């Protein structure tokens, strides 16, 4: 069955389509599950997507041609009475457009099969047999010449002679609820439309029991099969995991290392978590496979799941294994770190982590104080005083001459690293330098003040504090590769990623957005570290 599924009847369900598909291994496997509200809608022309494919195959009965509709149906009940007809299938938009229409009676599972003809908009008949509840039955609706026949489970059940030629329509096909009727409650599967009248032998073949091969425990069988497949994909098996308690410490460590689950604490290698505490065939077992491996659920949970973190549990554990491996590599290396002075992160898990954090926090305070100092000077219109804390008067004159050289088309790129600048930083700084040269207090917006203060703080850090900070990092007690980063003689390029006191990017709003994102990353990392 193919088509476009719509939810334009205002259903209270968030995901009507996902809710409609039956669970694998159950009576509703590969079936559409209808609850009285949900439905599927197959368009004759795919105009909703901007393309008109004109699927004329759905215009059954056009030019009075023969056709067949066959399907499997599983009614959950016999209806609630009250005169409410229960829709099964409907091809049309208006109540008088019934080529074709199939209903169940309001208070019985009698099949009401109808078609529109030139002699009557409600031509057709009713079944002699009532469909059983909670069992699959196979109706086949056949228009053949002047006859309309209904087969149930391969046997002719009812037939009527039509009062005229068939009146076809190009309207959508509704599976379940139609514009005028609610759907029956139950399942529908293997819907087939043929552009000719099937023979009784063909219909008998289609009516073979679709559930004949189902075991007595289909859900449990599905769970066991998919669980074993997931374990094989990981590199292990259910048989191997069942023997966890018999493994020695070295054997268990080797298994954890092979699966990428080795941890600092051997008792927290996650191997036991790979074995669910629930029996196959239960929703809890399937939920556990969803959490560990990301297996899609075949049912709608009665309670909302936790907000997804972006990774399934197994991937989080394997990321922790990588962090542990990096720590082991760090411990074996004796080279000095390449730590950016303004980097603040909890990535280091070496024995000297607290010393590093203390060093970084003191630098953060120093940078924050200097930033406020620059911001105060700029707010007071003292751009010259702010610049003098970073560059000498001769250096400022040289920067002005570089600006003139650039305007004249001369290359200046090789000169900029002397001032710890790249081209973007140079052009931004020149705005402040020119304001200072005019001898008047610059009029700056709050964003501009923040932006210039940030740029000056970055330059002050590299030109005045960087050498001392790198020397402190070289202390024997602090030798560790905290984080692999690249440092240069110039300040850090715009666009590079740092935590806490970010490098200048030329746009205060952009920096705020990046800072917000980095806080989210830090929160997720912290949550992961505490698991």
From TrEMBL:
Start and end residues of each LamG-like jellyroll fold domain: 65-201
Keywords on record: Disulfide bond, Signal
Keyword Transport on entry: no
PANTHER family: CHROMOSOME UNDETERMINED SCAFFOLD_146, WHOLE GENOME SHOTGUN SEQUENCE, OOKINETE PROTEIN, PUTATIVE-RELATED
Protein name: LamG-like jellyroll fold domain-containing protein
